[in-house]
Amino acid sequence: TFTTNTGTTLTATEQNQLGTATIDNSGTFAVDTAGLWTLDNTVSGSGTLVKQGTGTVQLEANNASAGRTRIENGLLLIGGEQGSASLANLSSDVSIGEDGALGGYGSVTGNVTNRGNLIMGHALTGGGHGQFTIDGDYIGSGNDSTIIFNTTLDGDSSSTDMLRITGDTDG
Hints:
The chain is mostly beta strands. It has one helix at residues 121-125; strands spanning 2-4, 9-12, 23-25, 28-32, 36-38, 43-44, 48-52, 56-59, 64-78, 89-104, 107-109, 112-114, 117-120, 131-134, 138-140, 146-148, 162-165, 169-170.
């Protein structure tokens, strides 16, 4: 187990640095990657989870929770395949920075503030159309926040990506 206390930071730049350890995060846990990294470790606590680097961190389970998640750069992919949507969940308020992106087929249990890109499943992966859920509020902040969908233009029953927001929206 890795433990961060208030005012401390744990930074991982490669998946093998964590092994199979759990992260008990009351401080800051930063993931800085240039490639694709599936985060299988259990991350919990009231601290901040930070996505850094130009790469992708992928969640395929309900194994990560934080007081706040900050996507500074790169992509946080929640549910990389259609079938993973019911399992992939991040329990945290999320802030997407100008150079950051959030998306996939999964869900966020918390509020999302977007200054970058929110990308639905098919638009992101090229797989089947699917749904991304924000179980909280959505705020599009700044001039450059975008939401990206992909749809087939072929009548009312055409396949499309969907965004479901259970709270309030603004921006």
